[in-house]
Amino acid sequence: MAAPRLRSLPRNVTDMTRLLACVHGSVQNFQVSPDVASAPFDRATPIREFFSWPGKRNYEGLYWSSTNRRHVDFESLLEREYLLAADNAPDVVAIAAQPLALLWPRDARGNRDHVPDFFVRLANGDGRLVDVRSPKGAEKHAEQSALTRKVCDEIGWDYEVFTGLPPELAHNLRWLAGYRHDRSAPPIEVAESIEGCFAVPVPLRLGLDEASSRTGQSIELTTAHVLHLIWRRKLCADMTRPLSMSSEVWA
To answer: TnsA endonuclease N-terminal domain: from which residue to which, for each copy (predicted)?
Structure first.
């Protein structure tokens, strides 16, 4: 059973930064060291509650992650944009929202703690903490980010401040994400046939017509299969330009 999310965080009365996380069904207090690098923070439940109130400006919700095979919390549209990017990234194998709290030493100035927005586990086993900020927010919280980066360096994790995707890439991922679910995945033999239709770069529309004809499936189902394969990076396209039916796609 998962530990309940905390409504408030405890004060750190020590001279060292502490790390608080809900793992293995309970809240645990860790010393910051390389020993925690491989701890299962990618499976941790959010350390604190996600608060909402009338008139709150941020949009919050749940994002179904094709990487995790379950929902991940987000507290803003910018956080949802990060989840799109992480879910599509080939080197990310697990994503957790607000999985830990950093409790600064008792003599620290300013805020007593910080809850990073996400933790991701990478394919090589490394970890990465992520803070999602608007460009102005990143500048405002630069000192906090520097402290967080220092903690990550001590543990051996990467640290990222995400401020948004290029507009074209964000547009493309929003479109493709509609086909990320398994229901859009083609059977293996159909996928192989589709990939053969894109053996050389061809406009998406022409490739769809050829794949529909070759597999005997409707153009609607073939479209879902092809866009799923692009999401899964089995088919390629130039993601720096808006995807359209005239975009070149190749296997």
So the answer is: 90-163
C-alpha span between 169 and 164 (Å, rounded): 10
Helix (H) or strand (E) holding 160: strand 158-162
* Together in a domain, 48 and 133: yes
Quick one: pLDDT at residue 55?
62
Is residue 2 over pLDDT 70? Answer: no
Whether 9 is in a domain gets the answer: no
